Amino acid sequence: QVHLVESGGGLVQAGDSLRLSCAASGGTSSSNTMGWFRQAPGKEREFVAAITWSGGSTGYADSVKGRFTISRDNAKNTVILQMNSLKPEDTAVYYCACRMYNGRVDYIYPYQYDYWGQGTQVTVSS
């Protein structure tokens, strides 16, 4: 059983930055893939970024490439999403997710992940 807790969300202006953290406990391993997803009101949950624990390979949605960076600290079981140049379109609840095996960064759909955090709200005003 993996427990995930997100933090770092808030209310910012367009162009500002936020740093989201995901603390994982209970069963992380080198086979895991960690992902960030987001969900705006009335919208489907969408992929943002992913990283593998073992090698640190990363993947990003086209909408955030060049603005967001995902990273991890294996010793601390923590995944970071650094968000720069934020836009109002980035407003959503951001979720951390964990896939338990076959670590790869091409898992871009929510059903491919096994555990989820509670989410943290990011609001970007114009």
Report on this structure.
There is one protein chain. With 126 residues, the chain is mainly β. The chain contains no helices and 11 strands. The protein has strands at 3-7, 10-13, 18-25, 33-39, 46-52, 58-60, 68-73, 78-83, 92-99, 115-116, 120-125. Strands 2, 4, 5, 6, 9, 10 and 11 form a 7-stranded mixed β-sheet that branches. Strands 1-3-8-7 form a 4-stranded antiparallel β-sheet, with no helix packed on it. Strand 4 (33-39) and strand 5 (46-52) form a beta hairpin. The radius of gyration is 13 Å and the shape is globular. The N and C termini lie far apart (40 Å). The mean pLDDT is 94.
**End-to-end gap:** 40 Å
Radius of gyration, CA atoms, in whole angstroms: 13 Å
Order of helices and strands: EEEEEEEEEEE
What is the helix tally? 0
Uncertain segments of ≥5 residues (pLDDT<50)? none
Q: Averaging pLDDT over every residue, what do you get?
A: 94
Shape: globular
- Helix/strand-derived category reads mainly beta
How do the strands and helices of this protein lay out in sequence?
Elements: E1 3-7, E2 10-13, E3 18-25, E4 33-39, E5 46-52, E6 58-60, E7 68-73, E8 78-83, E9 92-99, E10 115-116, E11 120-125
Parallel strand pairs: 2-11
Antiparallel strand pairs: 1-3, 3-8, 4-5, 4-9, 5-6, 7-8, 9-10, 9-11
Summary keywords:
mainly beta, seven-stranded mixed beta sheet, 126 residues, four-stranded antiparallel beta sheet, 11 strands
Compact description:
With 126 residues, the protein is mainly β.
